[in-house]
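Service request form, structural biology core

Requester: graduate student, group of Dr. S.
Request type: structure prediction, single chain
Budget code: on file
Notes: please return the result as structure tokens.

Sequence provided:
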Amino acid sequence: MKNPLLRTRAAALVLGTAVVLLQGCSKSGDGSRQAAPRNPNEAASQLGQAFVRAAPEIKHNADLASEAMRKGDYEKAVVALQVIRSSTNITLEQGLAIHNSVVAMEGKLIRAMDAGDENAKRAYQLLKELKRN
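Core staff response, request fulfilled:
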């Protein structure tokens, strides 16, 4: 572009579009986007928050998964996460909370297996089998 005014307008348009896109990427639709949890306790909290308004049966299973993750009941947590993951009508926020919970549980299970925890080993095998389905 040879016209400096057009270059300035084009640059302003590009900059404005970039700002809008960046703002849109930093928030979910309701402005409640959370960082990925670092451990199962944080994942349990995120899971509970994501399913506050879910259908009663799905919310019940999310609550079971959250409680099991907090208590270290690995197998129960893995099964409950799989049940809610296979539910229909899951929102994006809920799907991310499920994914984050599975990732947090997987990390916890690996660390527990390295420490010789047989319960963690069984739960990890169950998690691998459920991920295949």
